[in-house]
Design goal:
alpha+beta, Double Stranded RNA Binding Domain, 29% helix, 107 residues, 2 helices, 4-stranded antiparallel sheet, 26% strand, single chain
């Protein structure tokens, strides 16, 4: 597993996606295995960013092993994130509100 580790306590990035499933919106930080849910995608995005910030701050404060910043994401979330990054997928995947990558240094 050590060869898969890419994030450290000082640098790296986390992928995230906000998507709708059923009547709820979900926000996922893939490398952290954080999931937020709610009825409003903007609130879910805000809550996910707050959760990611707290997660990174706690990891740094407690000097955790980098594996905590490099968790294996659920296959469903990986697939949704990958689809969201394909060209012109917004028209085909209207259930995707937003996806992206965030540098750990900016969290």
């Amino acid at each position: 597993m050590s060869k898969d580790i890419k994030n450290t306590l000082k640098n790296g990035q986390v992928r995230f996606v906000i998507f709708k499933k059923g009547s709820n919106w979900y926000g996922v930080a893939l490398e952290f295995n954080i999931v937020e849910a709610g009825k409003d995608p903007n609130v879910v995005l805000f809550n996910l960013m707050e959760a990611m910030t707290g997660y990174v701050e706690c990891a740094i404060k407690n000097n955790v092993h980098p594996s905590m910043l490099n968790q294996k994401a659920d296959k469903e979330y990986e697939k949704i994130w990958e689809q969201s990054y394909k060209k012109n997928q917004k028209a085909i995947l209207p259930h995707i509100f937003m996806s992206g990558q965030k540098a750990l240094a900016t969290i």
